[in-house]
């Protein structure tokens, strides 16, 4: 009788009074948890594989569509000097515009993030944070229209002054553009566009700095600036690099704002002359009417931009992996 009752309890997990044994509940929870973990792990793995598949599909498509460029005679390519001579100014213009944007937006974004996270009172920090985040919601065509109609004419006198006083520097050699639609203007517009990315990410990293690190620095007699330099910035170093690289990717691929601001033309080493263009803007302006060899040229230019973006991301990951000790990456 007792043996049969024990066997029944083991099979059903219940005591004679109708109570479920703790061991059976634990086993049920464990089995259910393991099943959920396996499902979630499978979904995560599938999502990761899907990203690689999509990336490979884009690379294969661009390579396949751009392959006819290899068979096009050099005289038939735009400019009449071959594909490399055609795409070289576009690559240079893309990199120059992105570098100008980073040089302006990176220090401003980091300083604004530090002000929001460590200096401003809460009633000021929140509105400033909302305004910075709101900049990311403005369409790029609006930035481009503003840069073309407002910023460019406003900067034209400044460019004239630069050419008159610093024209001996190749980057500021004249004659300056009378319209202000130059590579410098495009870089300034891009810097405003990528500013929310750098500021928002840096702000979140700065907030996550361990409070004990900050308090220990202050307890040793450090000023607030010294505390930020000793505790906050080392912790946030990889996060800052990640935000800058993400902003660089946005600047490299920006299309409409640059297309509206720049007056297309040949390669100009001066930042205040009319001319220059980027790969994204070149594709946006010419793709709707392109066909045949011209279409292959534009897709090949897009492949070059794809490769540049991959290289930038690989470099960023290498830098982050090297400096991840004592940082927000841990």
From TrEMBL:
Superkingdom field: Bacteria
Membrane-spanning intervals of the chain: 43-66, 86-116, 128-146, 188-207, 227-248, 298-320
Cellular localisation: Cell membrane
Biased composition (Basic and acidic residues): 8-17
Database matches in Pfam families: BPD_transp_1 (PF00528)
Keyword annotations from UniProtKB, A to Z: Cell membrane, Membrane, Phosphate transport, Transmembrane, Transmembrane helix, Transport
Membrane protein topology class: Multi-pass membrane protein
Molecular function as annotated in GO: phosphate transmembrane transporter activity
ABC transmembrane type-1 domain: residues covered: 91-316
Annotated spans, Disordered: 1-33
Cellular component GO terms held in the UniProt record: plasma membrane
Annotated function: Part of the binding-protein-dependent transport system for phosphate; probably responsible for the translocation of the substrate across the membrane.
Cited NCBIfam families: phosphate_pstC (TIGR02138)
Family, similarity comment: Belongs to the binding-protein-dependent transport system permease family. CysTW subfamily.
Name used for this protein in its record: Phosphate transport system permease protein
UniProt organism field: Kocuria subflava
Gene: pstC
